[in-house]
Amino acid sequence: MKIATAGGAAVALGGMFLWAQEKVPVFKSKVDLVVLTFTVTDGHGRYINNLKPGDFKIFEDGIPEKITTFEEGNKPVMQVLDDGALKPMAVDAESPEKSDSTKASLDARGDPFSGTNVFVLFDTSNFMYRGFVYAEDAIADFVRGLDRADSVAVYTFSRNLSRASLLTRDRGSAITGLRTSVAGDDTALYNALLLTLRDAAKVPGRKVVIVFSNGPDNGSMIAPDDVRAVAEDEGIPIYVISTNEVNKDSISSGVFKRITSRTGGKAYWAKTWQKQVEAFENIREDLGNSYTVTYYPAANPNEGFRRIQVELSNDPGKRLRVRARPGYRPRSSEG
Questions:
Q1: Domain annotation covers residue 98
Q2: What is the rounded CA–CA span in Å between residue 286 and residue 166?
Q3: What is the pLDDT of residue 170?
Q4: Structural domain count of the chain
Q5: Fewest CB within a 10 Å sphere: which of 28, 104, 152, 277?
């Protein structure tokens, strides 16, 4: 190791001081491709399928947006051309400029970003001790029933997060990781959820996080609304299956409702194994009947919360319902 002389250190410090004077950080909005996942249902809660990009109007703060890609359920992602026609996305998996995560998102047919990247976050804290084995079975059944195009990761947590199985299409590998989990310590749900969201945000394409938890959090350093804001901004729907009763812990129930509704997901209260299996089936059905669009936002001076609105072109009676995140905050970057 070389030791700098006092004179050399002084020169270096002087240079740093001049650099600090000259390079004043300027913060500005950096808006990347926006990923928006949503469902469309009728007044009876039945999914509306086979809609096309032309059936939707996307607005951001009232400004119309041009859809770049379109995906329904687990069908291949389609590029939306200027005339509204659809064209299959073409990505060369061997291209050297493609990242590993992009290559990993190609399915056996070469379709980019097909299916959903599902992150299951399993509460293994001491609050879950009694129903631990039944919870594992419900998650395993859910994993086995995912569409073949879907990828799944299984994370577990108590006080700390464990990545039991990284994102994979190998159902056996994911379930093996799940079965290695052990019941443990206090609950740091929101810490673990934040780390899971950060992992999910690195993956291209559509992704969701499914939290399976008893509810109470007695170990997190992160506020739940801060975590919710990250999911909202990244466009990652959160689903929650709570093994508690909705009225037993009003604080956790309120947080779960807020986190799921603000990200385009849903919350379920399922104390019994049968209810847990039913909740997972509902989530799986939701994923298979959702739409995902992407767009590059039009010029917008708003650097704060931008409100997203999805309208249907052919719904004069406003009888159909769209469930989506209400908006996001564009990233700030140093320029």
A1: no
A2: 23
A3: 96
A4: 1
A5: 28
Q: Tell me if residue 137 falls in helix, strand or coil.
A: helix
Inter-CA distances, 302 with 5, 28, 103, 205, 230, Å: 50, 11, 35, 26, 18
279, part of any domain? yes
Q: Which of 25-34, 131-140, 207-216, 268-277 has the lowest mean pLDDT?
A: 25-34
Tokens of 310: 């999805």
CA angle centred on 119, ends 113 and 120, rounded to 5°: 150
Residue with the larger pLDDT of the pair 91 and 119: 119
237 is in which domain, residue-wise?
A: 117-288
> CA-CA-CA-CA torsion for 7, 12, 16, 22, nearest 10 degrees?
90
Query: Is 253 domain-assigned?
Result: yes
* 275 closest CA partner among 248, 238, 242: 242
Per-residue pLDDT of 92-140, as tens digits, reads 444 434 433 334 334 433 344 578 999 999 999 877 767 778 889 999 9
Structure-block tokens of residue 293: 């669009």
For residue 69, what are the β-bridge partners? Answer: 79, 294
CATH number, residue 155:
3.40.50.410
